[in-house]
Amino acid sequence: MTLTLLSLAGDGIGPEITAATERVAATACARFGVALAIERAEIGFPALAATGTTIPDAVIDRARAVDGVILGPVSHNAYPPVAEGGRNPSGVLRKALGLYSNIRPARSHPAVKTPTGHAVDMVVVRENLEGFYADRNMEVGPGEFMPTPDLALAVRKITRENSLAIARAGFALARRRGAKTVTVIHKANVLRLSDGLFLDCTRAVAADYPGIAVEELLVDAAAALLVRDPARFEVLIATNMFGDILSDLAAELAGGLGLAASLNHGDTHAVAQAQHGSAPSIAGQDRANPGSLIGSAAMLLAHLGHAGPAAAIWAALDAALADPATRTQDLGGTAGTRAMTEAILRHIAEQA
Ligand code: ATP
Ligand code: MG
Q1: Is the N end or the C end of the chain the one with fewer CB atoms within 10 Å?
Q2: Could you tell me where the DSSP H helices lie in 32-177?
Q3: Catalytic residue at 208?
Q4: 124: part of which helix (H) or strand (E)?
């Protein structure tokens, strides 16, 4: 059976890192006898120019039909907001495919300096479909609105259903990783109802995992502790915006956004996506670190049941990171995007 992935290049550094990721996924799958077909479609600025929307409905339909998606970064968030057509492709896909869970690992590499000097190996499990994200809360009314020209309000939606779903995803992942502790991130001292409901749900799920200790931590305290003692964290479960912010912090603590992989998944679909944005300032210069999206693709392959190619990609990525000559400048290396990709391909080919 052929595994079909849809690759969406996006904007900025997107085309460079998706091209690299496609080659790495194809090579790893070939080594393990997994038949892989990669389809491509346009999103972001090219799609906006050609079709009037940053993510055409036909692309959403293809994303639904394939086994998985490789999603490049898109520069959607210009302010003031792009009126019609400027929708956020990643928000749209997360909603359309029911991707309630965003798994964001942060793992340091021995050869890559970390800002605090600590080794880091944690995963942020972030709710993906509600919280303070206006574009995902439209069904409860406008997610943001201005009752007067001098007052802007934003709505934060927390449901029992999604809080239970993200807690289940987080604890299941903790068990698979053999984690001893799960840290639940909240701000229930001021968001009593919404984070109160979220905490209730994580406690209900935690009861099914008596072997795992649970630590409930205020998001502000978590930010401080992440910097002071990142090694204490194994799996963090968080609502959407807190998880978004802390995962960038965790990624930097592990060595930088250039390595920050992530997987969006629900019960039926999955999308690989780097944690960072489109980094337009380095686009088209062969400077982007492809590791973030390549790692994301490895997570996608593992999620789809192809543990062999996934592990081969992680091992090859680690091998490339070990040598400054085969890692990019953001990690203190000298390689360009293409040279780092070639090194990863070479390491996959050389694996026993
Ligand atoms: P966007 O508006 O799409 O979010 P951005 O410029 O904010 O774009 P981010 O991706 O959020 O870009 O990243 C912020 C900075 O981190 C970039 O300007 C870049 O310097 C660095 N960065 C992010 N991703 C990478 C990468 N893959 N390789 C190298 N540097 C990166
Ligand atoms: Mg950004």
Answers
A1: C
A2: 45-51, 57-65, 89-96, 160-177
A3: no
A4: strand 121-127
Q: Is 285 in the pocket of ligand 1 (CB under 6 A)?
A: no
Counting atoms of ligand 1 from 1, which one is nearest the CA of 293? Answer: 27
Q: How many angstroms from the chain centroid is the CA of residue 247?
A: 9
Provide the terminal-to-terminal Cα distance of the chain, rounded to the nearest Å.
25
Residue 73, ligand 1, Cβ within 6 A: yes
Q: Which of 239, 301, 330, 348 is nearest to 68 (CA)?
A: 301
CA–CA gap between residue 36 and residue 296 (Å, rounded)? 17
The residue nearest atom 20 of ligand 1, judged by CA position, is 279
DSSP 125: E
Atom 19, ligand 1: which residue's CA is nearest?
Answer: 279
Q: Are 116 and 98 in contact (CB under 8 A)?
A: no
79 lines ligand 1 (CB under 6 A): no
CA of 246 to the centre of ligand 2 (A): 14
pLDDT band at 174 (very low <50, low <70, confident <90, very high): very high
Ligand 1 mean position, distance from CA 289 (Å): 10
Phi, psi of 3 (to 5 degrees): -90, 125
Helices 14-31 & 291-303 angle (0-180, nearest 10): 40
Question: For the chain, what is the radius of gyration of the CA atoms?
Answer: 20
Q: Is 336 in the pocket of ligand 1 (CB under 6 A)?
A: no
Read off the pLDDT of residues 199-213 as tens digits, 9 standing for 90 and up: 999 999 999 999 999
Nearest CA to ligand 1 atom 17: 279
What is the rounded distance in angstroms from the CA atom of residue 177 to the CA atom of residue 170? 11
pLDDT at residue 12 is higher than 90: yes
**Distance from Cα 98 to the centre of ligand 1, integer Å:** 26
Question: Facing residues of 182 across strands?
Answer: 214, 235
To the query of whether residue 229 is one of the catalytic residues in this protein, the response is no
3-state secondary structure of 345: helix
Distance (Å, rounded) from C-alpha 132 to C-alpha 124? 17
Q: For the complex shown, is ipTM > 0.90?
A: yes
Question: Are 320 and 295 spatial neighbours (Cβ–Cβ below 8 Å)?
Answer: no
One-letter identity of residue 77: N
- For range 274-296, the mean pLDDT: 97
